[in-house]
Amino acid sequence: GLGNLQAIALQHQGADPELGRRLPELFHAAGLKKVENGVLGGQWTHPIDQRTWQSEWDTLEQDLSGLVEPKRIAALRRMDAEAWQAGRRVLFVPTFYAIGYK
């Protein structure tokens, strides 16, 4: 889906979309003790305004350019627009956190 394509695009830009999931491992490797970690599952279902939606898609189209055919990007955009207009659009952004002690 779109989330997977976006993760691939971020990897091509040098980002590590899986880094948050690896925080406990990295904290332990750094010698921290009593590592506590978790995830905050932010989920937005309220409607967004047209300008915000357009800004999201400007970024998505730029990120996916060269990785995904323009026709596929246009189809994904149409599907998202339909879901947004019908009130079915759900944006899920997990936020990972960790704390460790020396």
What's the N-to-C terminus distance? 41 Å
Total helical elements:
4
Largest sheet, if any?
Answer: 2 strands, antiparallel
Spans of at least 5 consecutive residues whose pLDDT stays below 50 are none
Which SSEs are present, and which pair or pack?
Layout: H1 2-12, H2 23-29, E1 33-44, H3 50-64, H4 70-86, E2 91-101
Antiparallel strand pairs: 1-2
Features:
102 residues; alpha+beta; two-stranded antiparallel ribbon; 2 strands; 49% helix; elongated
What does the model show?
- The protein is an alpha+beta fold and 102 residues long.
- It has helices spanning 2-12, 23-29, 50-64, 70-86, and strands at residues 33-44, 91-101.
- The radius of gyration is 17 Å and the shape is elongated.
- A two-stranded antiparallel ribbon has the order 1-2.
- It has four helices and two strands, in the order ααβααβ.
What's a concise summary of this model?
By secondary structure, the chain is an alpha+beta fold. 49% of the residues lie in helices and 23% in strands. The chain is elongated and about 50 Å long.
